[in-house]
């Protein structure tokens, strides 16, 4: 079946190899290798339960790839390969929605930052992405996942999961539930300010995990996974990047002693990011940016927790408590960030001075 789908994009091509690729939570991904060719491709089946408007995310991808892949841009993104009838997507007989993109060769991903230069390069690349997208007409882009980073929506999801206790798991997680509920008000400050119109809506990536960058040598060369790109605020991108880049452990680390907040990684990333975006930020963004890492860590923590209480319906899991482990990592990371809060504020103040 996969070869038949590939023929819709690459008619007449022989296939040397098709194998699962990456560790994404949502879409099903394969790398496609052609015989005797230096280039390869990424084939993905889009999860339409999560992305209900795949045509819309394809349109967003096309708009952004045109901007990012300009000849003078030092970062790139994967290119959508059209079908034989010129479409960006192929729908199979079972309703599955597929796309093919170019594969950025001789590149690699980073799961956990081990060197400060990796953090700086990540900041530079994600910051350049944000700056290149600055000025785009927000009204011409879809919201790929409704309320994706809206904290009030995620809190309602958690509250509903607690009330229903569908998987019967609530009794064992009361402590972590209390941890997140105690921090609701502080986590909601950025959404409140944004709702008052003081923080502008921009086109942002919305999923700035470190593994959504590709590196070549000691340079970040590509920003990938544009499915969530669309309207948002820059606090989302900055905060989510810090959440993953300054975390000293993997997102599902089971040894809590390994979970920490790397201040050197935070400062390196921030220098790279602000080197690109500082000129476009307004005063409110600068004032409240220090809360962004906690906000995004909080959102991910309660999303994992709600999914655990619901019986693991959204995220792929490898074992029974996988989502609880993920939520616990976010809890520990928030605690480490809180310990460094005044240092974070002081560093950002220095950057903006």
Give the radius of gyration. Answer: 20 Å
What are the secondary-structure elements, in order, as H or E? HEEEHEEEHHHHHEEEEHHHHHH
Q: Provide the domain count.
A: 2
Oligomer: single chain
Instruction: Assign the CATH superfamily of the largest domain.
Output: Aminoglycoside phosphotransferase (APH), C-terminal lobe
Average of per-residue pLDDT values: 95
Rounded to the nearest angstrom, the distance between the terminal CA atoms is 58 Å
Overall body shape = globular
Helices, by number, come to 13
Q: Any idea of the CATH class of the largest domain?
A: Alpha Beta
Features:
single chain, 353 residues, alpha+beta, Phosphorylase Kinase, domain 1, 2 domains, two-stranded antiparallel ribbon, 10 strands
Explain the overall architecture.
With 353 residues, the chain is an alpha+beta fold. It folds into two domains: 6-102, Phosphorylase Kinase, domain 1; 116-352, Alpha-Beta Complex (Aminoglycoside 3'-phosphotransferase, Chain: A, domain 2). Helices cover 44% and strands 12% of the residues. Strands 1, 2, 3, 4, 5 and 6 form a six-stranded antiparallel beta sheet that branches. A two-stranded antiparallel sheet has the order 7-10. The chain has a two-stranded antiparallel sheet with strand order 8-9. The longest helix is centred in the C-terminal third of the chain and has 19 residues, at 292-310. The N and C termini lie far apart (58 Å). The model has no long low-confidence stretch (mean pLDDT 95).
